[in-house]
Amino acid sequence: GECGVSSLPSVAFKPGAVKISKDIETLLNSVAQQLIANPSCKVRVIGYGATSKSAQQLSWDRVNAVIKYLVEKQGVSESRFIFSYGQDGDANTVDLQPT
Fold first, then answer.
1. Between the CA of residue 54 and those of 14, 21, 57, 64, 93, what are the distances in Å?
2. β-bridge mates for residue 94, sequence order
3. pTM for the full model?
4. What pairing do the DSSP bridges indicate for beta strands 10-12 and 93-98?
C-alpha cells in the first residue's frame, strides 16, 4: 500500500534528557493519529549522536523512548518502526520519516 503520510515532525529533546516531555507527548499523539489512519506506513525513527559511544547510547535510548511511547501509549504496532540511531546530525533530535 501507498503511505499517505508525507512528513512527520522532528522530536527535540532537552540536552541529556531521554524523558518524553509534555511537548513531545503532544507531538507524538498527532504522529500516532496519522499512523493509525495510514496502516500501510512504516516509520524510520532516526537518532543522532555519531560523535561518541555515550552519545550513541543516548541516541538509542531516545529512539527507543519514542517508539515505546507510540506502541504502549498509542497502540501503534511495534513492527511498523525501523530503528536508526547514531547517525550524523543534531544529537538532541529524533527524526520520524514515513516510508
1. 16, 21, 5, 15, 15
2. 11, 47
3. 0.95
4. antiparallel
pLDDT tens figures, 58-93: 999 999 999 999 999 999 999 999 999 989 999 999
How big is the chain, counted in residues? 99
Within a 10 A sphere around the Cβ of 86, how many other Cβ atoms? 21
pLDDT at 20 over 70: yes
Surface-to-core class of residue 78, CB atoms within 10 Å of its CB (0-12 exposed, 13-18 middle, 19+ buried)? exposed
Are 94 and 49 in contact by the 8 Å Cβ rule? The answer is no
Percent helix, strand and coil across the chain, each rounded to 5?
40, 20, 35
Chain position carrying cell 512504516: 42
Whether the CA torsion 48, 52, 56, 61 is positive or negative: it is: negative
Tell me the average pLDDT across 6-16. Answer: 94
